[in-house]
């Protein structure tokens, strides 16, 4: 038979494709006869589909079996010991196969035509469906033309999920993993109202809020007060292929309010006590209402929240990872002052004995540098946040209680005010405003940039009476260039850092000798004429640690990415505070938070960062893309910013020599060199030893490990309210088990707090007669009017709170109010 044969399909029964068993065998016998019927039957080929799926029906003729003797005799010839199927039976098989296949094709075509007719009707009535089909076809063609096996986009995954859910009942909606991740991102970034608006208007698109809350709670991103998340940090670094990073610390004002945390059964909002500088976990836990009353009356509510952030330093093959929240806990102003003192001195004092540690950094210096004060072995490297240092530098200039001067030149705000008010200059010449000179705005970093701009410096430099202010603001400009600007070459960073140090040393040495030589009977307070001690020590600290890092890289102890010095700041902490405040919702006017609120919001931000990190490397279907700020698009690859290979060719001693020469040139018009030369402290070596002795004579370090104070004089010469309550326990109160009620009531009542009230019903307050025994830790047992009750611990906090503190939503007023209260 050939392809031109015409098959009479009308002779076939309508149900030929579904025939099975005896009915199928009767059909076979009527069409092609008994021999083929017997061959199919002995092999149990009993249906049309089974027949078409069999590759070689005559294969049984190859086998030698008594059961096959009769069939082979009828259907085959025996030639030279082998059985050969008769031609007529072969032709019958070919005919039957072609007939059944043709019938199957006709059924498929008829079915397709029917579906196509229905689709046309649907397309005409539903333009959206037509657009979707066109979009899917275009997508498919694009992938084929690009010869790509690209993964399914999130849009495709999102549409598929919606269409699949629309054919299900609402109770049976299901969501793929990419949609779940997208839902979490939308809720965290947009808030509850935005999420619900989209969910209820796109049926089947997004999971219900209950499902979303379950996903968040199961994500294991809860953050407990005072807990350092080292295990999670290790996982985060491994996922980003990062080994090094920088830890920063900062604090912010919080709403002073006590909240009960059901997850840890502890009260949050009191100042966290420290043990050798480490916060004590879940310190405020109690099942005694009386003890909680004592805490309220004797312990102040914490005005500050202190956090530690870890900023990973990327390798040469990765972009900048998001900072990681390491810990958060309540703090008071006394603790923060102590922390600033320790961090300001710890790495600055060169001879403080360090307990031997296997992971300590250790330099291998061939020669001793008199101007370098750090010891060669360091357990940690500390830097003062440059943004805070810059604002401190500016605030010192704007202070009304100081009289900054260097040599014959005064350093005063009046020089800047004269520029603004002078008719000789306009704003086009200096770009200054009176707001830039407002001393109350102590955190105005942009003002620092304008005060140290080239335009302002040129005006000051050209006036012989403003040389002191010029030098002071030139140092401010160098701090920004060294530690904040991202494009500064490495050599320029190091040189600028040490110019600042050497100018400050020359200034301090002149001032010390000027005071010593003064014939006035009135003691001169040098602190009125010099920058703050904190600012000066920060300058020394930062320059020393920058050089220390460079030396470690040169000696192959650290990778080159450790020299991204502009990342060494506490701005990641500031960013965390801003992000937490931004999660208050579109219709909420409360941008501040309690410590409990911050921990809850930080958990969401932690989940957000994890999803974002995973999506960057996601190679599966439904990858989610994130918007990139226009300022970050060009700075995403840090290794295009500066050439770190320069570190291998950096001559440290040559750079230091150039720095000292530049510092001497900078102060040559200030009239201090004569006195310094006379006292023989003008040369670098003499100057550095003089300043070193001054630091040693005034500095002490407290050692937390031994509890002793080390006096530097004894050192050898070897070398710093969106309210939220967890109501899960309240919801579970409906599942009350009375089995344990009698046991709970049989406890000794002598220590039970007794309360009086003219009311007998307490609607709106979680005061209950019975509770679920599993939630007993969340309740105090009290007697109200001699009746045993269970008072929820958060309700107990409400009962003991007699004042609701507020915190200004304005940043400037918030800082000022917090400073007054502390």
UniProtKB/TrEMBL annotation:
Residue segments, region Disordered: 708-750
Pfam families documented for this protein: Tnp_P_element
THAP9-like helix-turn-helix domain ranges (all copies): 148-213
Domain of life: Eukaryota
Biased composition (Acidic residues): 714-732, 739-750
InterPro entries per UniProt: THAP9-like_HTH (IPR021896)
PANTHER family: MYND-TYPE DOMAIN-CONTAINING PROTEIN, PTHR33173
Protein name per Swiss-Prot or TrEMBL: THAP9-like helix-turn-helix domain-containing protein
């Amino acid at each position: 038979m050939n392809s031109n044969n015409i098959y009479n399909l009308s002779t076939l029964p309508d149900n030929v494709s579904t025939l099975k068993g005896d009915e199928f065998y009767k059909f076979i016998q009527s069409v092609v006869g008994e021999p083929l019927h017997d061959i199919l039957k002995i092999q149990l080929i009993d249906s049309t589909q089974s027949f078409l799926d069999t590759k070689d029906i005559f294969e049984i003729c190859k086998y030698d079996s008594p059961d096959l003797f009769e069939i082979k005799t009828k259907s085959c010839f025996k030639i030279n010991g082998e059985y050969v199927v008769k031609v007529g039976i072969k032709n019958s098989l070919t005919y039957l196969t072609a007939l059944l296949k043709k019938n199957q094709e006709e059924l498929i075509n008829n079915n397709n035509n029917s579906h196509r007719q229905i689709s046309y009707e649907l397309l005409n009535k539903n333009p959206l469906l037509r657009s979707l089909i066109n979009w899917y076809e275009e997508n498919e063609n694009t992938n084929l033309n690009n010869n790509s096996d690209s993964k399914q986009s999130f849009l495709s995954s999102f549409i598929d999920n919606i269409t699949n859910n629309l054919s299900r009942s609402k109770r049976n909606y299901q969501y793929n993993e990419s949609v779940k991740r997208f839902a979490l991102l939308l809720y965290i970034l947009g808030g509850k109202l935005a999420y619900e608006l989209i969910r209820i208007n796109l049926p089947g698109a997004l999971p219900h809020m209950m499902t979303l809350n379950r996903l968040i709670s199961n994500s294991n991103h809860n953050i407990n007060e005072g807990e350092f998340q080292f295990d999670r940090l290790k996982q985060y670094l491994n996922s980003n292929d990062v080994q090094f990073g920088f830890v920063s610390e900062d604090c912010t004002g919080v709403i002073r309010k006590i909240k009960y945390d059901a997850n840890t059964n502890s009260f949050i909002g009191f100042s966290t006590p420290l043990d050798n500088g480490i916060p004590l976990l879940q310190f405020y836990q109690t099942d005694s209402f009386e003890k909680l009353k004592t805490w309220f009356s004797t312990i102040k509510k914490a005005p500050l929240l202190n956090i530690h952030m870890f900023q990973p330093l990327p390798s040469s093959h990765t972009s900048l990872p998001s900072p990681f929240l390491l810990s958060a806990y309540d703090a008071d102003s006394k603790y923060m002052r102590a922390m600033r003192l320790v961090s300001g001195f710890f790495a600055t004092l060169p001879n403080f004995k360090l307990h031997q540690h296997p992971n300590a950094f250790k330099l291998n210096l061939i020669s001793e540098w008199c101007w370098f004060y750090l010891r060669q072995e360091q357990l940690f490297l500390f830097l003062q946040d440059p943004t805070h240092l810059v604002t401190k530098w500016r605030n010192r200039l704007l202070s009304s209680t100081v009289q900054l001067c260097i040599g014959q030149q005064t350093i005063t705000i009046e020089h800047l005010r004269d520029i603004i008010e002078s008719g000789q200059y306009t704003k086009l010449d200096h770009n200054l405003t009176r707001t830039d000179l407002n001393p109350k705005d102590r955190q105005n970093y942009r003002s620092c940039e304008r005060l140290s701009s080239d335009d302002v410096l040129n005006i000051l430099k050209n006036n012989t009476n403003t040389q002191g202010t010029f030098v002071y603001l030139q140092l401010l400009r160098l701090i920004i260039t060294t530690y904040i600007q991202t494009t500064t070459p490495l050599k320029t960073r190091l040189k600028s850092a040490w110019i600042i140090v050497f100018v400050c040393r020359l200034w301090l040495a002149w001032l010390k000798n000027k005071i010593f030589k003064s014939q006035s009977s009135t003691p001169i307070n040098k602190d009125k004429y010099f920058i703050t001690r904190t600012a000066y020590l920060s300058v020394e600290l930062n320059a020393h640690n920058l050089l220390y890092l460079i030396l470690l890289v040169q000696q192959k102890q650290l990778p080159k990415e450790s020299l991204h010095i502009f990342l060494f700041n506490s701005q990641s902490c500031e960013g965390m505070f801003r992000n937490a405040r931004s999660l208050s919702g579109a219709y909420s006017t409360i941008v501040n938070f309690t410590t409990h609120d911050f921990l809850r919001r930080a958990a969401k931000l932690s989940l957000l960062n994890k999803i974002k990190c995973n999506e960057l490397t996601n190679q599966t279907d439904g990858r989610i893309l994130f918007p990139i700020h226009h300022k970050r698009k060009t700075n995403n690859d840090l290794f295009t910013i500066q050439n770190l290979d320069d570190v291998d060719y950096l001559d440290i001693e040559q750079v230091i020599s150039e720095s000292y020469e530049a510092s001497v040139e900078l102060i040559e018009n200030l009239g201090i060199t004569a006195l310094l030369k006379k006292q023989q402290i003008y040369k670098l070596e003499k100057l550095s030893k003089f300043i070193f002795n001054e630091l040693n004579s005034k500095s002490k370090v407290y050692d937390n490990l031994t509890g002793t104070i080390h006096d530097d004089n004894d050192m050898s010469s070897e070398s710093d309210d969106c309210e939220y309550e967890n109501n899960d326990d309240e919801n579970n109160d409906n599942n009350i088990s009375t089995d344990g009620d009698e046991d709970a009531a049989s406890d000794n009542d002598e220590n039970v707090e007794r309360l009086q009230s003219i009311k007998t019903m307490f609607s709106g307050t979680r005061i209950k007669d019975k509770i679920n025994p599993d939630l007993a830790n969340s309740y105090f047992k009290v007697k109200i009017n001699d009746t045993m009750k269970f008072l929820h611990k958060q309700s107990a906090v409400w009962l003991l709170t007699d004042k609701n503190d507020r915190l200004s939503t304005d940043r400037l007023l918030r800082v000022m109010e917090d400073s007054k209260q502390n």
